[in-house]
Amino acid sequence: MTREKKLYLSAKGVTKIFGLGRQKTLAVDNVDIDLYEGEVVSIVGESGSGKTTLSKILLGLISQTEGEIFFQGVKRDINSHAKKREYWKNIQAIFQDPFSSYNIFNKIDTVLLDCINMRGGRYFPREKKIEMMTEACSFVNLKFEELTNKYPFELSGGQMQRLMIARIFLLQPKILLADEPTSMIDACSRATILDELMHLRKEIGMTIIFITHDIGLAYYVSDKVYIMEKGRFVESGSADEVILTPRHDYTKRLLSDVPKIHEEWDLSTV
Amino acid sequence: MTTTMLEVNELSTKYITRFREDVYAVDKVSLKVEEGKSLGIAGESGCGKSTLALSLMGYYFPPLHYTSGDIIINGKNISGLNPDHVRKTILGKEIAYIPQAAMNALNPTRKIIHFIEDVILEHEMYVNKKDIYERAKKLFETLGLPPEVLQRYPVELSGGMKQRTVIAISVLLLPKVLIADEPSSALDVTSQKMVIKMLKHLMEAGFISSMIFITHELPLLYNVVDDIMVMYAGQIVEKGTSHEMVFDPIHPYSKGLMGSIIVPEEGLRDVKLTAIPGVPPNLKKPPAGCRFAERCKFVRPECRVISVPYREAGNGRVYRCIIPEAELREAYSREERTK
User: Fold this and answer.
1) Chain B closest CA to A156's CA: distance in Å?
2) Subunit contact B189:A244, Cβ cutoff 8 A
3) Domain count of chain A?
4) pLDDT confidence of A1, banded at 50, 70, 90?
5) Cα–Cα distance for residue pair B268/A261, rounded to 1 Å
6) Fewer CB near the last or first residue (10 Å), C or N of chain A?
7) Percent of chain A with pLDDT over 90
8) What is the mean pLDDT of residues B304-329?
9) Centroid of chain to Cα A210
């Protein structure tokens, strides 16, 4: 017997227009997306296809021009700062550039403590907080003892990105939005980051949305893939369906542009 | 009989930091590139790939310093020459270098043609500007770039176009060796493909005789180069043809690297990516024995003590490990079975 999966987040007809008059640009064009519990979804597109704008709308950092967003079946309300804070307990993000994701004046302890405070652990005893932070760091194979009293710039890119995952571990959101989490990191650390993200997903059972231009990565991690071109979803479906039997020309082109190792890479098509 | 274009014998270079500490970034690297061949250098970030590229030019500026070894380009030894002399007679003519963020090198207040004039006037005196324009136009046409680009400012061009323009400028004086250090890592897949196509065209059309290509993206490297060299902590750990290196690596580090390849092909989802735990060693105090010992699964006590020599594996293939090839392969197949 399969249990009906809960619908976490859904967007209906979301449109975003930047600018006015002649300068008007349509960044996101009438997009529908449904995210269920425990799913991993990828949104793939080239630069300028509107995938980051869509992710910002889903996060509530910018508002949509048209359309509705429903969170757990109820229309999302983030009109006040308090309501936004409440919403962000459920949805969190990892961004592309780990170097600019941290406040450079805050020590790493502060970064992790903020997460505990946000989860309602403000009045926990000191030992408990340290224990929680140590647990979170060891989850991503970092040592908390080595990180205390350090500033973010003393870490490498890979370590910073892993610390981001440790943050998510403490926050335990329902949805994680990963906006190109591995594009600034070399291929070897990429495997580590992905492993840890997937492990975390199993641990706390959250939904992950990957925003990426790397179609191989999307295929590797996700259950469902959406291909985005010029603000629209041109193709969507299960990962195997979209990547192995692409139907839309844009998907075919994207796939042919990626170097592969078992097939010949045709250079004559550009 | 093929001629050797670039030969490097036991090249070592180091960085000297503000605090007078030595960082041994390239340690006794030897390599050979023959005419018409391309060599790829792979490795994770911080393992000395880019420093090796800088060192190969023979043009050292602080904090990078030359320690020992020879660099022989087309029969000419350029190591230890006066940097000014190297810049005027070697760079651009014998060896050209495309750095990682090459497109940011273009001054936004000048037109593309001005950069070309700069390069040619630096190396050849008494050239008419009109001749330069004609020459540049011809070059751009052969390379498949629209000649209108010459009269444009860098801000008017897209990232991929800027990158291709920089590559075109770097081959103006027909260098023997081209070193491309991550030329496409800041570009999207389509522009990346255009850049790669252009580099391949340069080789085929005889603009350059050989190429060194540096990247951490292994599927790309596999499609571009003939031979792959894997670097770790300033040293070469394995060298072989690209097919051998991707499908049949010997050294545990190469094995780990090749296990992190992600390509959108059938069967990828069943593969478990192998991640190499830990970080590369601090090169201020490089470990005495094998530099990979700290992160190696098959580490033995003697690994940390004796310096490991290269071993031959036939067909010009070398690897640097204390454990013989057969034993390593056996260990890999055992691992495969337990999965």
Assistant:
1) 10
2) no
3) 1
4) very low
5) 11
6) N
7) 19
8) 87
9) 5
Nearest chain B CA: its distance from A250 CA (Å): 11
User: Residue B166: is its pLDDT beyond 60?
Assistant: yes
- Cβ contacts of B263 on chain A, cutoff 8 Å: 216, 258-262
* Parent domain of A120: 7-269
Interface of A with B (CB under 8 A): 46-47, 141, 156-158, 185-192, 194-195, 213-220, 239-240, 243-244, 253-255, 257-263, 265, 267, 269-270
Q: What is the per-residue pLDDT across B105-130, written as a single tens digit (0 to 9) for each?
A: 889 999 999 999 988 888 887 888 89
Q: Where are the domains of chain B?
A: 4-109+153-338
Nearest-neighbour CA in chain A from B240: distance (Å): 16
Give the nearest partner residue to B260 out of A191, A261, A267, using CB atoms.
Answer: A191
Task: Look at A191 and B275 and tell me if their CB atoms are within 8 Å.
Answer: yes
Distance CA B193, CA B183 (A): 11
Among B257, B264, B276, the residue with its CB nearest the CB of A243 is B264
Helices (H), chain B: 49-56, 83-85, 112-123, 129-142, 159-170, 189-204, 218-224, 242-247, 252-258, 325-338
Whether A1 maps to a domain, the answer reads: no
What is residue B226's predicted lDDT score, i.e. its pLDDT?
92
Residue-wise pLDDT for B50-62, tens only, equals 899 988 888 888 8
Which are the contacts of B314, defined by CB distance < 8 A and separation ≥ 6?
none
The answer to whether residues B215 and B42 touch, using CB atoms and an 8 Å cutoff, is yes
| Residue A55, domain member (yes or no) | yes
Instruction: Give the domain CATH number at A73.
Output: 3.40.50.300
In a domain, A236, yes or no: yes
CB contact under 8 A, B190 and A189: no
Quick count: other Cβ atoms within 10 Å of Cβ B75?
9
* Domain annotation covers residue A27: yes
SS3 A203: helix
